[in-house]
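Most newcomers find our protein records easier to grasp once they have seen one. To make this concrete, we reproduce a full record directly below:

===
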Amino acid sequence: MSYNIISDYRNDDGLRALFNALAEKTFGLSFESWYKNGFWNEKYIPYSILLDGRIISNVSVNIINCTVGGKKRRYIQLGTIMTDEDFRNKGFSRILMEKVISDYSDRDGIFLFANDSVLDFYPKFGFRAADEYRFRAVNEAQGKARVSRVPMNDINDFRAFLNKKTSLTSRSPVKTDTDDLLMFYLSQFMQECVYKVSDKNCYIIAEKDGDTLTVFDILSDKEIDPAEIGSYFGSEVRSVSFAFIPENSGGLEKYLYKEDDSTFFVLGKTLISDLPEILSFPALVHA
């Protein structure tokens, strides 16, 4: 069986179409609009096996440059790990994993999120499962909402938001250079999730579900008390959960977080030593 390993082909229309075909078949999603909007850049690198004119297996590299407690880190996240159902259990994922780990052995660590069906696979490459921690709070404030939704309907809205973001700071101790991944979400699945606080230079990325608010990031020019975030959305919000780690956790409850059908795996001494500071990577960094 003759195959080729190909990578970093985002600007090749034909290969990108083959990649999208496998992603749609496996996960029901396409990366095409992400590409056409200009957000698929050099930091998302698919490693794929090309066989008989088809991409049959893939492991994508996400370059995650960040600071952790003021220390610069170069992490790699692996995502979009998939093999066509007709070619599973033939060792293709193993070939790609070995290639990627070898190519990025100089990085500070590698992490990924695996579903429950493959929990025995990643330890074969040295990965270990790690706990994730998050924070939550109860909102007891009364009153009306002080936020308004920010339009995120087209490329002009996306660019306007990113332009505003350049003058703001993410209120997390783990600061990532991942606007590409952020816009994968905000330009497609979370277009209704960006809010502006009326009396502050502050934007909140959050999702409301009944009386529960999930906060994905806080962007502001001044320090914001996360314990007050619920009050910005009014008395309809009763509980607030944070899908990132706030830089100020005073007044918040820390808890062990476990997402259904997902396990956090890590590889690398530096990353493992950083975990007590990281606690969990922001949900908007997940690939």
